[in-house]
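Box 4.2: Ligand-aware structure prediction
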Amino acid sequence: MTGSSRGIGSSIAAGLAGAGATVVLNGLDGGRLERARSAFAAEFGADRAHGYAFDVTEAAAVDAAVDRIEAEVGPIVILVNNAGVQHREPMLDVAVEDWQRVLTTNLTSAFLVGRAAARRMIPRGAGKIINICSVQTELARPTIAAYTAAKGGLRNLTRAMTAEWAGAGLQINGIAPGYIHTEMTQPLVDDPDFNDWILGRTPAARWGTAGDLLGPAVFLASSASDYVNGQVIFVDGGMTAVV
Ligand code: NAP
């Protein structure tokens, strides 16, 4: 599970662990990752909680980490591509470096980690890949152009993976969370105007919680979804269903 040292990734990993999975946590900051791993170990047992710090945007680091995880923990049967970053700035002012950082972290990473995992899953004839998308997979907003492009791309990467790998027994799907209260969105929660806009714009009239994502994640990680291919489940309180 990439980007699982905090936020949504950590919550989904806990949901999968609660459903019986052995989890491999990942993040960039080794200290934060170790704190998360040790909390998981206390809750689920040390043999079911592992941590590997590596940069999901670096192809060589990804390939090396997947090799180590398969050798040291066991076969990867479920991959969740969750690592992501946001960058808020009017598009006219966005520097190429910021554009590339957002595209690479949110989109290229899913290709790199997905490819490394699929190379192992395909010969075994089974595997589940869940790509964490967003409301911006479907809809745009001002000031988050790179994120919108990346999350839209992630939906079609989900379809491309399906086109190439579903025949080998893999299911690749996405979860598109709506506005979920996490560290990433704390500045938005703290902004009264934006907070009011969310409550008015979301049919469910509330922010989402990480817990709202657990059921869909367990579904897509389990055999209950064995004939679900290339889909994105929007868990957004109905935001993308209404204008
Ligand atoms: P977050 O709290 O900022 O956590 C991001 C995670 O990704 C951290 O574990 C971070 O590790 C890791 N990460 C970032 N860059 C990385 C890299 N290059 N290599 C490895 N790990 C990396 O984010 P979040 O709000 O939980 O969001 C998680 C995912 O859900 C993202 O894909 C986001 O786009 C998506 N999403 C979020 C919301 C929302 O409302 N929050 C809504 C829709 C979709 P470190 O701690 O080491 O930096």
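In the box above, the bound molecule is NAP. The chain has eight helices and six strands.
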